[in-house]
Every structure is written in C-alpha cells, then in structure tokens.
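User: If only I could read backbone structure tokens as easily as an amino acid sequence. Those tokens are not coordinates but codes from a learned vocabulary of shapes. Could you go through the record with me and say what the backbone is doing? Here is the record:
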Amino acid sequence: MKTLQKTVAFIVITLLFLPVQAQKTGMQSINPGDLKMHMQFLASDELEGRDTGEPGLQVAARYLAGQAEHLGLLPVDKNKDFFQPYIIEEKAYDREQSRITITVADSAVSVNHDPFYIFPAPDGDQTIIEGEVIFAGYGINSEEHNYNDFENIDIHDKVVLIMNRAPLNEDGTEAQFDNEKWSGMQNFQYKMQYIYSRQPKAVLMVMDPKSGMHSIEDVNPAVAKYLSRSRSLKAEDEESAGRAGNRPGMVLIHRSVADQLLASAGKNLKDLQLEIDRNLAPHSFLLEGTSLKIELVMETKDLEVFNVFGLIEGSDQVLKDEVVIYVAHYDHLGTDEEGGVFNGADDNASGTVALIEIAEAFMKEKKRPKRSVGILWVSAEEIGLFGSQYFAEHPLIPHEKIAAVINLDMVGRTKMEEDMKSTRSGLTIQGGDSVKVIGGLQSKVLMEINEKTLAEAGLVGNYQYNNLTDPNRYFYRSDHISFARKDIPVLFYSTGTHRDYHLVTDVEESIDYNKFLKMTRFCYKAGFNVAQYNGPIKVDNPMSDW
C-alpha cells in the first residue's frame, strides 16, 4: 500500500506541475496531449481498476480534487475541499460459511461448496432458502410458440430449477424460436415476470450444457465478482432500510449442483436438454423426495466514498444562479481473480478526463457563458449508480437551480474492424462521426440545442437507443437517470460499448484520440450552448409524468 501511495504521489506531483504550454482560449485549449496525459494516469495499473472502496478509487478522487483546485473551480461543499462523502454498505459472501445442502429420501445428504450467487442480493447477514425442487426446463411460457415449461406443474412455494436460454438447435448456437430474445443470458428478464407471478420460493438458474459453460464465472468473471458482493447506499433511517421487498431470489448455481439434484431422479441436465430440444416439448417434474437448503452468510462493512464537485460561475448576474452540470463516473471494476486490472480507459476514464479538459476550457474562455457550470465526478456507478443517486438526493446545488445535466460515459473509442468481427452481442460502438445520443426527451429546447451543436461539430447523432422500451434499457443505465428522475432535463453522450467493454483489455492504448478529442470538444460546446441559451430550459415532458 505504501508503495502505491508513493508511486501515485510522484505521478500526481509530476502531472500537476508539468511545464505550461502556450495558452489557448476556450475550446482550443482542449488538446490530445492533455487528454493522453490524464488518461495515462487514471487508467494506469497503479490505480488498480478504481474499484469502489479500494485505495485506487480514493487516489483518483484526490487527483480530481487536485485538478479542480488547480484549475480554479469553486468548492461549494461544506468543507470546501471539492469532496462530497457518502457511505456504501458492503456485504460480501462468506464462502467458508455458505453452502448448498441436498437431502434425498430423508437420509442421504450432499453438501456442495461450488460458488453460487443470489440476485438481487438479499437483505440481512444470513439468508436461508429451503424447500422441494421442481425442474422446469428452460423456464419459458410462450403462448406464441405453444410452449410452456410450467404446464401441469405447480411451482408455488417451491424451488424451481431452470436452464438459461431456450430450446436450441443441435449445436446450441441458436434458439429454435425468437433467437434474439432467448439466446443470451439477458433472457431472464423475459422469464422472471411470469415465474415470479407463480410465487416460487426461489429460482435456480444454471448454464445449459450446450453452452459449454458450468457457471457464471465461465461467462464473465467480472459479473461473478460483482454478484459476490452486495453494495447499497447506507440507509439513513430505519424506514428506508427495509425497502427491498419480498421478491424471491434468483440463484445462479454451478452445473454440478443441478446434476446432483437431478441424480436423485436418475436424470442429468445434458440428457434432459437434448430431449427438450429434440421434441420442442417441456419435460418438467417434481424431484420426489429431494429437498434443497441454501445457506448464504455475508460479512458487512461500511465504505466511505466520494463524489467530486466544483463550480464555474456564469457571467450573467441573473442567469448565473442556474447551473448546467456535467457528470461522469470515475470508478470501474478493480481487478480479477488472477490479478488482471480492469483499467477502464474508455469506461469511464474517458468521460472523467473529458470533464477535466472541459473545466479547463471554461476557465480559459475570454467570456464565460451566462449560466454557471458544474463539474461533477461521481463514484459507484458500476455497482448501482450510487454516486449520482446520492448527489441527486443531496445536491450541492438546489434542484430548482439545475438547468440541465450532461452525462459523458465512454467517449473515447470508434468502431474498428475487430468490433465488427466480435462475437459479443449488444455492442453499440459508433463509427466515424456518429455519436450515441440519449436524452433530450424531457425538453424540446435541450434537444434543439443538442441537434444544433452536433451540426456545428460535424457529428451525427444516433438516436437508436434513445427509447424507453429498448430491450437493453440504455436510458436507465448511466448516471443521467438519477437526475431525470428528479425532472431535471438530461443529455447522455457516448461512443458506445465495444469489444473490450468491461474486460481487462479496455486500456489506454485502445483509445482513439482523434475521436476522443472531437467528442470532448463537442461536449464542451454542447454545454456552453446550453449555459449560454437566453430563454428558460423548459421541461415540457417531465419524467414524473411518464
């Protein structure tokens, strides 16, 4: 730890006191050299992936506060140090004490210690799920395809075991109906609504044998690591502490657990899948005389984390009371089990760095815009948007004074041939001069300013994902949503998810500095135009009415 601190301290001092280059005003002060300098630090191995609650994230926070002070931003927090502290409550799985116990015919007991994950994370330090088990195939009820895994079985108050995906072709590469809807891990979104309506005690989900995977670790180790911890904003009162509700949990289990359960009926998962896929007919049944007990023990601790916020005062004596806030999250995923670093260069060191350069550009303007501008770096986005949620609920600027929020999340890449060849699904990476635009739905004025600025910058807005019914729900998946829920108009700019998204390969060397520069300058100009706008930034379609 001391070595990390010494290394970081040296780098910070070096960066803060580099020789001053020839002064350029406003937008022209944003240059690729500075973007690269900040990026190389924030996405370096020394910051160990900027995980929430870890030393690397605290170092990043100090770095950003140092930049805010160096640039001359105004601190408006209580301690005048640019920090807004808050508490995350972390509950981590105690693997030694957690177990799955299978009892057959009241005598044979099998205890399985393969990792399992409960989603959403349960309340309390100990969770026990116990009951009879029903195998329900893929867990699908589709009237459209005359297929119902729950026909003639009652899963009420039972533990129901299902596979991911849907009936598949022979080699398991495509679902035999609605491939786009059912072929990936995300299909549980479609399954659970019906399953929960039948009120099971819990849902066990296992990787189907044709996938070649045995557990969620095989799909994505980062997801497994994320699920092994429950993190939430610490409740400020007893009333808010019990809001989780009683929805049954989904337990992601290892395939060995499924096969141990099914062995009591003389079955195995591979043969059952082959039979269902071959006949396109359900094969669901109660595991007679078999019961399951899941015991999850969690250890609890509090993590103090920080948002970083600085203000740039506007030039108009009246309008300067209104604030246009830029937001970007500076946290990422930490390290993997093998010590690999999730550097998070694009996600979201790019947005974080862009805000440093945007702040500098505003400070170097010959005349600042009429409204004030806030620069907000938030933490804990990757684990639940908690930093932006906390700021939105405890704003350092009164809600009624926040004219608009502009969110930057992944603005440093462009579509490459490798992205087009990638087998990863759901990639939204933008090529050329295209920008993924989300927001503007609450305010016609904000959308008009956005479109005007895109044209000025020679960029083209891609609004494909600016849809509340988009199955990937991008409108809800970044920090702008915390403000939209407060009826503050928002814009969210991104170059999109790419082949390295949430992988250890999201590194500084993969940043496209030409696109990154163009995006940063565009985002600066968009915020400037909003802050300079003469009329009110009217909210004519508040989210509270949706």
In short: Residues 513-532 form the longest helix (20 residues). The radius of gyration is 25 Å.
